[in-house]
Amino acid sequence: MSFSGRVDRESHKGGLLVSFEGRAPRLGAVIRIARGRILGKVETVLGAVDSPLLHIHPLKENVDSRATIGSPVEIAPRDRTPKKDRRFSRGSSRNKKKGNGGNRGRGQNRSFGRSNRKSPSSSTSKMARRSPNSGHRGGNRNSKKSRVSGDRRGSGKRRGGGKRR
Question: pTM of the entire structure?
Fold first, then answer.
């Protein structure tokens, strides 16, 4: 069943209430008088299930809401003319190259998924020059020697001395 409606009355907000049959149009759909002038966009669908109403608000300029009461309405066809790609509307475009070409780390990054370290036999690698607890980021800074007495991680002992259940 398709959409068919008729302007019922003015709303308290200055829009139009339209009674309709069939499937409700999407929110934001443009509604027009049958084969004629555009009234406005669907703001909301309200009312009982057996007698729903569309609220069309705001109205297009130069629409006399009182003159449209009783007029049959339809959903205006959407404009299908191709527009600029909306995904890149914030000043960027597909032709701009940023660092990795927009591939988010894939494609041009040849070392993706491979280790960048030199072979273990090389004595000039960064890992070979550092001592185990040199204060660098990463690694295990909490060696067993520096544990505080209350830190039980990895000790295997259970509090209370009871058996495991």
Answer: 0.49
Asked if 147 and 140 count as a contact pair (C-beta separation under 8 A), the reply is no
Question: Quick check: helix, strand or coil at residue 144?
Answer: helix
Domain-by-domain residue ranges, the chain?
Answer: 4-75
Q: Is 150 helix (H, G, I), strand (E, B) or coil?
A: coil
Task: Look at residues 81, 79, 80, 77 and name the one whose alpha carbon lies nearest to residue 3.
Answer: 77
Whether residue 155 has pLDDT greater than 90: no
The total of other beta-carbon atoms located within 10 Å of residue 18's CB is 25
Alpha-carbon span 57 to 15, nearest angstrom: 5
Instruction: Find the radius of gyration of the CA atoms of the chain.
Output: 34
The mean of the pLDDT values for the chain is 75
Find out whether 40 and 31 touch, Cβ atoms under 8 Å. yes
CATH topology of domain 4-75: Thrombin, subunit H (2.40.10)
Cα distance between residue 68 and residue 16, in whole Å: 9
Tokens of 84: 């600029």
H-helix or E-strand spanning residue 126? helix 126-129
Report CA torsion sign: 107, 112, 114, 118.
positive
**pLDDT at residue 130 above 90?**
no
